[in-house]
Amino acid sequence: MPIRVMLVDDQVLLRTGFRMVLAAQPDMEVVAEAGDGAEALEVLRTAEVDVVLMDVRMPRLDGVEATRRICAQEDAPKVLILTTFDLDEYAFSALKAGAGGFMLKDVPPGELLAAIRAVHSGDAVVAPSTTRRLLDRFAPMLPGAAGGTGPGGARPELERLTDREREVMLLVAQGLSNGEIAARLVLSEATVKTHVGRILTKLELRDRVQVVVMAYESGLVRAQGPGGGSRL
């Protein structure tokens, strides 16, 4: 079955452009549209959707609150945030609310399509440089990120993890894929996937994006200056 996509944006022309790009893909289909978060929630009551492309700044109900309400539902579709603003605190809030990724609206079509496929498969989009700059910009404002508490000191739930799981979590937070983590730790990719699944279960997290957010909140990963440190 093709990936069923919903477009949520208050600008009709942008929705039209995205629809044209997606319609050209044999594995994607635009099944619904909405002009704001409130309309999106209403449409989702009857539409079967796999991935929601969600704008952030919209009238009535913004993308952050809409994302939070969508992700709180059982069998919720994945949400991919699209915004005009590179360093947008609202987009960061949407990631914390459960969004599976963050992209700029001027992203090249190929990258957007790859992001939709990645989010649909459950492998959240945490690699683009825009996400790294977003997290590095706002990480100092998070509890524990500047408190010098040491790795994991601010979040006692991290004690549930084994040493290996903590090591894998750190590499996930640095933006490495399962394949890259496997090469770094000399493990099979299947083993890394198992570790990631256990991390999500133990910490009660939705996806890899939320792993990154928790790593920043706990101080496990610290904000880096431009060009330094981990890539996200």
What does the model show?
The protein has a 5-stranded parallel sheet with strand order 2-1-3-4-5, with helices on both faces. It has 10 helices and 5 strands; from the N terminus they run E-H-E-H-E-H-E-H-E-H-H-H-H-H-H. Helices cover 45% and strands 12% of the residues. The protein has 232 residues and is an alpha/beta fold. It is globular and about 50 Å long. Mean pLDDT is 80; it is low at 144-153 and 224-232.
Structure characteristics:
232 residues; alpha/beta
Structural class: alpha/beta
Q: What portion of the residues fall into strands of 2 or more residues?
A: 5-15%
Low-confidence stretches: 144-153, 224-232
Q: Biggest sheet, strands in spatial order?
A: 2-1-3-4-5
* DSSP helical segment count: 10
Short description:
The protein is of the alpha/beta class and 232 residues long.
